[in-house]
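G., before I forget:
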Amino acid sequence: MTGLITKDFLVMRKMLRSYLLMIVVYTILAYLDFFDYSFIITFVQVALSVLPISAFAYDEQSKWDRYAMSLPLGRSRVVGARYLFVLLLTLFTVAFGLAGTALLYLAHQADFLEMFVILMVSSAIGLLIPTILLPLSYKLGAERARPYLYAIVFIPVIAVVLLAKAGVLDMSMLKGMDLLAPTALAGGSALLPLAGLALLFVSYLISCRVAAGKEY
Amino acid sequence: MTNCIEIKGLCKSYGDFALKNINLTLPGGSILGLIGENGAGKTTTIKCILNLIHRDAGEITLLGYDNIREERLAKQDIGLVLDECFFSDALRPLDLDKILAPAYREWDRKLFRSYLDKFGLPEKKLIKEFSRGMKMKLSLSAALAHHPRLLILDEATAGLDPVVRDEILDEFLGFIQDEDHAILMSSHITSDLEKVADYIAYIHQGQVVLSDAKDSILDSYGRVGCTAAQLENIDPRDILRTRKGTFGCEALVGDRVAFSRKYPMLLVERTTLEDIMLFVGKGETK
């Protein structure tokens, strides 16, 4: 299974290298006060969560799936490798986000709590996207699953904006979060990625079922 | 000598196409050549063997293991080369070592690198820069580097020039020297199979229409060239298939010697696997 995870990293090493470079450059820019670091964390997290779909596209191009399913691993391990790849990417981004947050907190006395909450929320979103897209990719293939990605990312945003404009959604309630104790806010937000992990596990089970019934 | 592959009563239906009651046996120390037209069912059979598709009925045993219940054990000892290279263009040959080593108990890094060296494949060059021949050699290196006992090859030599094909066929002959080893090889290039195969199975429209030792097939089958009038005088029980052309007729006979004895006026030639395929695929029964 580790071989398959290694394969995903190796196939996408160019892309990952450019992401890494981007994170480093933007962290420096945030350090110099050119950028808002929390925006960068969110951006990178969402950008990385799309990578597993690219991995599917690469696999389809080389028809790797048929070969992978011929290896002495079993279908659930092949699926599991893809999910571990997602987890490793998320862990990497969270670790990098935490390191950058700590650095900016120490250097600029930045609002650690705010950045931490944003990091946790973006991690949860970063987990939620593959949670929905991976079973779809197993079922439909990368190309046919891709439109769902846009739906997952844009429809909630557009819906929130429209509902807020129509006055249905009261955005001022978000300000109420300031009234929460910092520890409650940090603890509550830390639960979000855990919920994301639980959903990712359910998604893995669904993908295993899809892969088991599929013909390669 | 144990059987490396045993297929009993394999059936798989796709609606418009079906594999019907396939029975095949591949003894150790030998090469079984699978021939047949495009869409005849060769790849479907191989996919069933590898459990890539769900069969409707039948049993498949690979190296003594059930191919579904003991799939992982069986696949530890199988090397696979399919009709195309499944490795992403973004990879390099040495990357395959990192990818495949954890999958196989007996992955041999030294052996893999020695194959790369033997086939003249640059270790650090991107696969996208490889020719088709190089890609097939890379697939073969990866298939052999975990000391498999059974090689499964689906159109592995298709599209390769004669020099590369000969080089790869030599490798297959070397592999088979061990009595525990066997190769299942599907190919359209019947001359390759005539060169290396010990057994031939011909799949036509989802059914095995011929399965025997290659030498026995080539020694016994014959091709008769004759006129339409001569063909009319041959007992239909003495010929298997016929083909009528502008310049005369041809017939396929199952027992060349017996036919010559019975019809001394007709010339019976040795036949090739390609002839047999053409008779079955395009010919008709008398």
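Chain A has one domain: 2-213. Chain A has a mean pLDDT of 84.

More on Monday.
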